[in-house]
Prior knowledge:
Blueprint lengths: L2 H34 L1 H4 L11 E3 L2 E3 L16 H64 L1
Antiparallel strand pairs: 1-2
Helix pairs in contact: 1-3
Amino acid sequence: MNKSLLEVYGLSVCFVSMGCLCIFSGILLYSLVELAFPSMMNRPGMHYPPQFSSHGVVAIRPDIPPMAGRPLPALSERERIKNNDETNRRLEQEQKRNSERAVKYMRAESTMSMVRSVIILLIASIVFAFHWRIAKQARNG
């Protein structure tokens, strides 16, 4: 094989592997930041659970059952205030659970992304070192 062609091949593979190293180093750093600062990186409703399900044009909340044409029961003022307090308390607890789930989900996703990035960085480093040696030998010898 022509030595200059072999050198061009080795250097072009090194160029591509350097691109992979740069891209996946950035992904790895981003995942590290997500793990270090989960509250800053997690926007409300960004990951889990979905707030609305969209079917065609209509957006439907998954946690509210349809009323099916039934009239609302008449309640006194005191009962409405009591029901609102209980509903608000339940909603606040559910929001807290959802945000805790979102943080757990985001951490799991970040960890998986870090593992993927490390694997690709190792492979790209090995490919780079091997082809750099090929290009160097083609140039010198």
